[in-house]
Design brief:
Rossmann fold; five-stranded mixed sheet; alpha/beta; globular
Length: about 130
């Protein structure tokens, strides 16, 4: 029998307070998704902060869990929960991928930017000539 993938749930809102329970709803949606996918949830973290700054306690906890091999999959509502800066977010997802962590979203499926990375690297190489 195949062992279930270990999942980590990450939620973020850009508000100083969660007056309307958005984090709780986000987390429940991701827990339901993990159950539907057959993942074993091994942890979760959250932030109430801007998506423009990657230095957030909850996201740092995600990074540490990935480094320590505590997850196979990171589940987020959508890519904007990780960050609002496209380049920083792509770099972060690449970093997770190098640690063996796949990022999934019930809204967007598997978040994989391999193709975009190839294009970016090719353009960078052309600019250097």
């Amino acid at each position: 029998m195949e062992q279930a993938k270990r999942a980590w749930i990450y939620c973020r809102i850009d508000a100083p307070e969660d007056l309307h329970g958005a984090l709780k709803r986000q987390r429940q949606q991701l827990m339901d998704y993990a159950e539907q996918m057959g993942f074993e949830v091994t942890g979760s973290s959250q932030d109430q902060a801007s998506g423009l700054n990657r230095n957030r306690p909850g996201l740092n906890e995600v990074t540490e869990a990935a480094r320590n091999g505590r997850m196979d999959v990171l589940i987020v509502r959508d890519i904007s929960r990780i960050g609002r800066d496209t380049c920083q977010t792509m770099e972060y997802l690449e970093q997770l991928s190098r640690m063996g962590v796949q990022t999934c979203s019930p809204m967007e499926g598997v978040l994989d930017f391999t193709f975009q990375k190839v294009i970016r690297d090719a353009l960078s190489h052309m600019e250097m000539k």
